[in-house]
Specification:
It is a single chain. By secondary structure, this protein is an alpha+beta fold. The chain is built from 5 helices and 7 strands, in the order βααβββαβαββα. Strand 2 and strand 3 form a beta hairpin. The longest helix has 15 residues. It binds coenzyme A (COA).
Length: 153
């Protein structure tokens, strides 16, 4: 099943719902202030939400020169498996190419196979492992996607 939400830049009014999704999924524990600083970052931040009548997902990317980092992506459980994360990545990639970004990096827990499958299907490749990267000792898989093709197409 696929669904097409509106994907737009995150604003402070979204944060109650964004924090609720984060709390439901328990994969990260960013505070409200952390999201606010990404929202306030006019050029180097790409914070997005996916919205139907309610917000169902979000992604936060940070630009550093010609590279970006995918810091966070989440879709609330009820809406997973409908292509929403993929659509967030599509819009984020478009924004990054507009900013002359050529590569996206990310770290993902070794055990988060669902997210890894999303990234691999989306064209990320593994680029190393950071041993005991997370506070609980789990390794992080580093992945990278080259946006060069998007730039040329
Ligand atoms: C990872 C996550 C963002 C994916 O969101 P999603 O909207 O369900 O993903 P999509 O529907 O866009 O699916 C894209 C790909 O993800 C994978 N995927 C999605 N649902 C899946 C499922 N139920 N089982 C296995 N793989 C799945 C598939 O590869 C899918 O590609 P396909 O449509 O060609 O099969 C979501 O599961 C989530 O929020 N997880 C908790 C937070 C998290 O782990 N974030 C990543 C931190 S690095």
């Amino acid at each position: 099943m696929s669904a097409t939400p509106i994907i737009r830049r995150m604003i402070p009014d979204d944060l109650d719902q964004v924090l609720e999704i984060q709390g439901q999924l328990q994969f990260q524990s960013w505070k409200r202030e952390h999201f606010i600083s990404e929202i306030n970052e006019a050029f180097f931040g790409v914070p997005l939400v996916a919205q139907f009548d309610i917000i169902v997902g979000y992604a936060v990317l940070k630009i550093a020169a010609d590279e970006a980092e995918l810091c966070s992506i989440a879709v609330c459980s009820k809406y997973q498996g409908q292509g929403i994360a993929r659509q967030l990545l599509d819009i984020a990639s478009e924004r990054l190419v507009e900013h002359q970004v050529s590569k996206i990096f990310l770290e993902v827990r070794k055990g988060n196979l669902r997210a890894q499958k999303l990234y691999l299907d989306y064209g990320f490749i593994e680029n190393g492992v950071r041993r005991r990267y997370y506070p609980d000792g789990e390794d992080a898989v580093v992945m990278v996607k080259d946006l060069g093709c998007l730039e040329r197409c």
